[in-house]
Each structure stands twice: as C-alpha cells, then as structure tokens.
Amino acid sequence: MTSKNRPRPVTWLAAGVLTFSVMQFVGIAAWFTLPDIPISVPKGYLLLKNVLWGSVGLIAAVALFFRCSWAPKFTYIGAITYAAWLGIDRLLLQRSDFAISSFPFTFGAMTLCFLIVIWVLTRPSVRQYYEE
C-alpha cells in the first residue's frame, strides 16, 4: 500500500498514536530511575500502566498505518478505554495536590484527543479506505 492511497488523516492519526505509544514506553525507562519518594500508587502499577498503553498504542498505530481492517475499531475501543482509565486513575489513585490541580487540563486534553480520534475515524474517506 502506498501512502498516495492512504487518506492524510489516517497518516496523521497513526503518527499521533505512535507518539502516544513512545511516550508510554519512555515512562518505562523513567520507572527505573524513580527517586525514592512517597507516591500514591505502587511503582509496579506505573510500570504495568506504561507497558499496557505503550503496547496498545503501538499495535493501533501499526494497524492504522498498514490498513488492517480492524484498526479503526481497535483504535476507537482503545481511546474509550484509555479515557475511562485515565479518569478513574486521576480521581481514585493519584491524590497529590498537583494531580488534583492539573485534572481540568488533563481532562480537557484527553477530551480533545478523543474527539480528534473520533473525527478522523468517522471521515467518509477514512471509512472507505478501511472498507475496501
């Protein structure tokens, strides 16, 4: 499949999801260098979270880029699940003053990213691209 046939929004979405995945994998590297300070969640949870979402993001980005028929649904479900996870994680587990004060920005950024994913996946050219 050449990039000439791929709708531009698909390329940009795949690049954005890949960036998200890389950020999660960088979080794994950061996990190994965490200072010994009190945190509100176990260190193992942070590792598990980054491995899980880095892997989901990488799978979604590759599937979107290489036109796997299941990629839009996988990406949509992944975006919904991540949004729910992030909301629950922020409200229940991360109780620091910074987490509480930055929640409105985090919620707004997450909502914007989710809406962009939905907008791209519902474009007629994108739907047609994956149905062919």
Concise overview:
With 132 residues, the chain is an all-alpha fold.
Label this structure with key terms.
132 residues, mainly alpha, elongated
Explain what the structure shows.
With about 130 residues, the protein is mainly alpha-helical. About 80% of the residues lie in helices and about 0% in strands. The chain has helices at about 10-30, 45-65, 70-95, 95-120, 125-130. It has one domain.
Strand content: under 5%
Number of helices: 5
Largest sheet: none
Number of strands: 0
The end-to-end distance, rounded to whole angstroms, is: 12 Å
Q: Please provide the ordered H/E string of secondary-structure elements.
A: HHHHH
Radius of gyration: 17 Å
Overall, the morphology is: elongated
pLDDT averaged residue by residue? 88
Count of individual domains: 1
Label the structural class.
mainly alpha
- The portion of residues assigned to helices is over 70%
Unreliable runs: none
Write the layout of secondary structure elements.
Blueprint: H1 8-32, H2 43-65, H3 71-93, H4 97-121, H5 124-131
Helix pairs in contact: 1-2, 2-3, 3-4
